[in-house]
Amino acid sequence: MRSTSSTQRKPRSANRAAKSAAAALAAALALSLTACGGDDDKSSDTGGATGGKETGTTVTLPKLNGQSLEVAAVWSGEEQANFKKVLAEFEKRTGAKVTFVPAQDPIVNFLGSKVAGGQPPDVAMLPQPGAIKQAVDKKWAKPLGTEAKAELAKNYSQGWQDIGKVGGTQYGVYYKAANKSLIWYNAKVFENAGATEPKTWDELLTTAQTVYDSGVTPFSVGGAEGWTLTDWFENVYLSQAGPEKYDQLAKHEIKWTDPSVKDALTTLAQVWGKKDYVAGGAKGALQVDFPASVTQTFTGGDQPKAAMVYEGDFAQVNIQTAKAKVGTDAKVFPFPKVGDTAPVVSGGDAAVILKDSKASQALATFLASPDAATIQAKLGGYLSPNKSVDISAYPNAVQQKIAKALIDSGDDFRFDMSDQAPQAFGGTPGKGEWKALQDFLTNPKNIAGTQAKLEADAAAAFGN
Predict the structure, then answer these.
(1) Which residues form a coiled coil (predicted)?
(2) Are 216 and 188 in contact (CB under 8 A)?
């Protein structure tokens, strides 16, 4: 949930426009994803758009010999390693020295301790618009300079620019995006079971039963990390309640005790509350983190722990860790439509400057360019909202289609609801929405109690 400030508007809140655009994007995804085969369709070495004096260079950066920067983010594993390759290119072009600082969730608390100690990182990658607003309110964040804003204007839709603004001032560069309306599945399990890709929620339940009857648990859920559960809820809620209600709940203009929330939780319980539909049961799922929820779906041969796992395009990194091939062993379909609206939920991480300098502004400018995004796009498990990145930079046909669908959607998407909230409600382990949905996973009959807890925590966080 984004800040309630009027300056932090959602891209195109008009219900009719959002419905039609979401439906169009979901239809495009359905068409393109089911048409994708193996991952033999590799990108060319030239990557994205080219310009400037060097091949693959579109942005001019200053020489920064002798200067150093610290960049903080919560990324780990392959995601961190791939981002470090982007930072290495910045070092090569500018002569600056960049150090990656591993952060912990909630990152605002982590940064607070750094600021209090007089050692904030120069740049932080913030995963929530609400966190950007907090950084601005605490006077940590510094506005972007002319060069960074020019790159944003050239390479980003207005919607992606706007969610990095607070009070009309540009603070964030959304370097990384996510399509969070996808369900990945083990192709061999589906083939053995005779299961087909569903397009509606009822068809998803039928597919799950078909898989279960074949002897494989239908779903893997990474319940140890509450954000995966909020993503489940958001897709169901957006599709069932519609974009207008989604926007209202995101800003706490309607309460979590609203009947629309009851309907979404009731729908979720059809999966979470179904005996033997979740790998390890509810208690077992609460011990499974997100990476493991993916890898256990694609290891174990014909008998993996689960046949399907819901999460965004970034799951490809973990699929690769499981030695599975995207498009062959691991296939994907759009999150099934529950109501009239096909859900298109996005997330993202924005670069925000905490120590203003020539070097930090140059890094923000670089991250807003297609040069930086193209490097990480080629490595897989990454999606950029930068419309100037050549689609061929993505390493397989599935990823290329997902990226194209996101760019083609323009401003017509809905940003992750929990990421728009004050972090105390939407982004803190063991608290707020994360904890309430973890409790609901273990007791999906307690719909009224879950709603009451969500409303109490939301009211406290939003201050209303």
Answers:
(1) none
(2) no
Rounded Cα gap, residues 268 and 47, in angstroms: 41
Least confident window among 54-68, 95-109, 380-394? 54-68
Strand partners, 232: none
Q: What's the burial of 111, exposed, middle or buried (CB within 10 Å: 0-12/13-18/19+)?
A: buried
User: For the domain bounded by 182-334, which CATH number is listed?
Assistant: 3.40.190.10
Give the list of residues 6+ apart from residue 239 with CB closer than 8 angstroms, or none.
201, 335, 337, 338, 339, 340, 341, 342, 343
Neighbours of 31 (CB within 10 A): 12
Token look-up 């601005």 returns: 136
Q: Output 130 or 119, whichever has higher pLDDT.
A: 119
426-446 pLDDT per residue, tens: 988 999 999 999 999 999 999
| Contact call for residues 96 and 357 (beta carbons, < 8 A) | no
Q: How far is CA 268 from the centre of its chain?
A: 20
Evaluate whether 68-179+347-415 and 182-334 have a shared fold: yes
Q: At a CB cut-off of 8 Å and minimum separation 6, what does 370 contact?
A: 48, 49, 58, 155, 386, 388, 389, 390
Count of other CB atoms within 10 angstroms of residue 287 = 11
How many helices (DSSP H) and strands (DSSP E) are in the chain?
Answer: 21, 12
Say what the pLDDT of residue 407 is.
87
Look up the pTM and report it.
0.74
Q: Domain 68-179+347-415: give its CATH code.
A: 3.40.190.10
Q: Copy the structure tokens of residue 312.
A: 């965004």
pLDDT > 90: what percent of the chain? 73
**CB within 8 Å of 109: residues ≥ 6 apart:** none
The predicted-structure confidence for 320-345, as pLDDT tens digits, reads as follows 899 999 989 999 998 999 998 778 88
- 16: buried, middle or exposed (CB in 10 Å: 19+, 13-18, 0-12)? exposed
SS3 186: strand
Which residue, among 433, 438, 464, has the nearest Cα to 106 in the 3D structure? Answer: 433
Q: What pLDDT, on a 0 to 100 scale, did the predictor assign at position 410?
A: 73
Q: Give me the pLDDT at residue 32, please.
A: 46
Domain boundaries, the chain: 68-179+347-415, 182-334
